[in-house]
Amino acid sequence: MAAAVLDRCQIQPSPDTVAELTLPLLHFDITWLYFHPVQRLLFFHLPCSKHHFLEVIVPELKQSLLTTLNHFLPLAGNIVHPIDSGRPFSRFVIGDSVLLTIAECNKDFRHFTGNHPRVSDEFYAFVPQLPPAKNTSDAVILPVFSIQMTLFPEQGVCLGFTNHHAIGDASTIVRFIKSWASVNRFGDDSKLIDDKSLPFYDRTSVEDSEGLDSKYWELVKRTRSVEPRRFSFPLNKVRATFVVRRDDVEMLKSLVLRRRPEMHITAFTMTCALVWACLVRAEAGAVPDDEPEYFCFAADCRGRLNPPLPVTYFGNCLAFVKAESTHGSLKGKDGFLVAADRLGKAIQKTVYNDKGILDGAETWPVEFRKLIGKRLFGVAGSPRFDLYDADYGWGRPRKCESASIDKDTSMSLCKSRDFEGGLEFTLSRPKKKLDAFAAVFTEALRTL
To answer: How far apart are CA 33 and CA 79, in angstroms?
Structure first.
């Protein structure tokens, strides 16, 4: 790894202004209890010396981080996983803290902020590790959040975030990142309070008439090691970012509407369908035509519950959406249309279900487990959670990366930084497979 650690410290919420907080893990959270950590990187163009970084930038970030954590206490706390009985829960007690690492890298900042293929391993110099779990006589104590600030002298800064997925989904973590940015930019938390952006913690507001909390716990408990598995290097993957511009999206929409005028289509659906079809086509000949292909993603359902939850609800609140087709159908000349049709129907079945978005939720853990070892593709992130809006006072990020996609077969997806109305996605794959996809994807856009 190419970063030198300058300091490690613990950032504690102010003990004189906060109180202890315990939250039960609901079925939305239990789903992710044994999932790998989620890792995000934000690169900012900020030419400054090492002296200025350590004497000015870092102290400001530490103070604003402390102020922000006062409102996001579970991130400084832990998940408590009982050994013998009882469901896990989130607990913050006075004295809990977030591990902050300060590092320096002398490599070319532009290399990491480009869209071109880069070795995936290189990014882990900027990814903070979660502290190891602690074992007590009756429970395993799991830290849930850590941060790293890495200076590229006279070039820029990278902020790295790692979180345990069971503590919060993208909506929750992105809200924290943007809140921290706001506090650092404006000097205090008054804007968070004025904008009503503070997290909502009331778990009793989550309706569970079907007893999903208990059912999920019975289904998933002790299915694997409590502590997240660490991955070994080299990963033997490269990552590259691709852009779908507004004009591309509109042409894809027109293509689908000519065939399926009743279909609900979005830039998200069009982009996912195109990438899914291109990935399959790039592997044509290596897989039997009747082999099932799956596309899965999680949909935010805060506003679709009964009663709905506020957008500031802290935790996980996600529905499981699964589209299915076959390799032969997706690799053919109408592969994109097939993908769009399957994704549209999957979204209609779950997100717009007349019986509610949680209809069938009791089987989601089993359904997902059945997909292990199958040809599964998915998406991490959403255009709704725009990290390019996170301004710490230095301007918008130059690049956002999701290191987590190295661990599975997902792509990361967000709004395009440079093209209004467009989207950008990143893939991490063995070089040969990524090159094959790039060729197919470029040709698909060219022939729209």
So the answer is: 9
**Residue with the two structure tokens 């725009």:** 386
Whether the Cβ atoms of residue 246 and residue 421 lie closer than 8 Å to each other: yes
Q: Which of 384, 397, 314, 399 is nearest to 144 (CA)?
A: 314
Question: Is 165 annotated as catalytic?
Answer: yes
Set 208, 386, 391, 435: catalytic member: 391
The sign of the torsion formed by the CA atoms of 105, 109, 113, 114 equals negative
Cα gap 242→278, rounded to integer Å: 13
User: In this structure, is the dihedral angle defined by the CA atoms of residues 379, 382, 385 and 391, taken in order, positive or negative?
Assistant: positive
Q: Are 376 and 409 spatial neighbours (Cβ–Cβ below 8 Å)? A: yes
Q: Phi-psi region for residue 285, left (φ > 0), alpha (ψ -120 to 50) or beta?
A: left
Q: What is the pLDDT of residue 206?
A: 94
Catalytic residue among 71, 165, 341, 406: 165
- The phi and psi torsions of 389 (rounded to 5 degrees) equal -90, -5
Element (H, E) at 383: none
Helix 170-186 vs helix 58-69: angle between axes, to the nearest 10 degrees?
A: 130
Q: How confident is the model at residue 224 (pLDDT cuts 50, 70, 90)?
A: low
Report which residue type is found at 218. Answer: E
For residue 159, give the H/E element and its range: strand 156-163
Tokens of 284: 């044509």
Mean pLDDT, the chain, as a whole number?
A: 94
Note whether 71 and 18 are within 8 A (CB): no
Cα separation of 98 and 230, whole Å?
A: 20
Closest by alpha carbon to 145, among 226, 90, 221?
90
SS3 state at 25: coil
Q: Which residues pair with 81 in a beta bridge?
A: 140
Reading the block at residue 65, the tokens are 């981080």
Instruction: For tokens 């982009």, name the residue.
Output: 271
What average pLDDT score do residues 52-76 get? 98
127-139 b/e with 16+ CB inside 10 Å = b? bbbbbebeeeeeb
* Catalytic residue flag (residue 418): no
